[in-house]
Design brief:
Length: 423
Amino acid sequence: MVENAKGLPDGPIWWKLLRPLYGLPNSGLLWSRHLSAQLQKIGFLPAPDVAQTWLHPDGSVITSYVDDLVLCSPHPDKTWAAIAGVLSITPPEDVSRILGVDVTYQDVKVEGIKYTHVTFAMTDFSNAAVKKFMSHPKAPKKLKEAMTPYFEVPPSRFVELKESDVGVYNDMAASYVMSLMYMGRMSRPDILWTVNELASHLKRWSSISDEKLVRLMEYVCTTAQMGSHGVVAVNPQQAFRLEVWADADLAGSDVTCRSTSGYTTFICGDGDSRLALAWSCKRQTSTALSTAESEVVSMSSALCTQLLPLEYAVELIMNSAITSSAFEDNAAALITMGQGYSTALRHLPKHQRVSLGFCGETFAASHRQLLKVESKKQRADGLTKGLSRADMFLCRLQLCVDYVAAKVADVMQMMKSQQAESG
């Protein structure tokens, strides 16, 4: 209840709001309509089927997150001035931090090609997560150095686990795990599988879960200065292509017999240009009976949730056609996806049948190709299973994760070796 100001009569008074009040159910919709109407006054049009994105005939693109606007334009000063004419905005600045992610840029020139080296890191967020964990009364006095988040548990430990076994971090486990899940989704794909695996322990947190959480925190503390890297060639005329890498681990989880899908999508261009656009780790919704089945389901999810939407968005923004490649390391899955569904496979469960049919129809398009890759060169491998220290080093290189302060030459070498592999 709000008391009436002095001088106003007692009793209920209806106030007409001149602007949407933060927190009201309709405020977001009203603001979105207002923002779109004002941007259309200066020539921007809503991007078809892409939320909160507007395109201008001169090539400018605006995307918004609530009241934060991000602009990409061939003449940003002129465009910002036009926006300021229809909206009340603060002085624009380069994107350096968004949704908790620190973004840095560095212009470099390698072998005559100009690149922009981009990093996405959450160092402060990592340190805050570790500090919060260490404040727990049962936390270890000091975290050890760890170069892999994976903590292997012998199967016998689960057999010996008692119902009365409840982990000491049970009261705060959800908070710790969900914080790191956000970081994994935004800038650290190398921790995503471990976080997802720990999330499945939340409904039955045990001493084993405690040990897994401590190892994850040790890894986050050790690698807090790491982030996702990408290099983009500075050439408006370059031809872009998308690469999707999909993998699966057959029944490799400690807590379920269902397989885990992992996939990531890069946008590539001239020279060694490569930037990760999306990555995901997800438990499959049905049990696969073979590796090939799990691989098909993983590729289907990658196409549906990443490649096809990104193809549409990139073509819309770039105003040009784009080619795509998908990389698979399982020979049986490669053959079946290339041929598509047939009645000879009608014995497959419904989920696998639909996934196979979807993959076959998607790869029938002339601008998409399905390619074989060696298992050790599969970039999505680290999104499907826990890895040893040595394998984790390779995983970070394949996912373009390294120290934020890494030398440009080292980053370019990482991109160059990846480019050679995908050929």
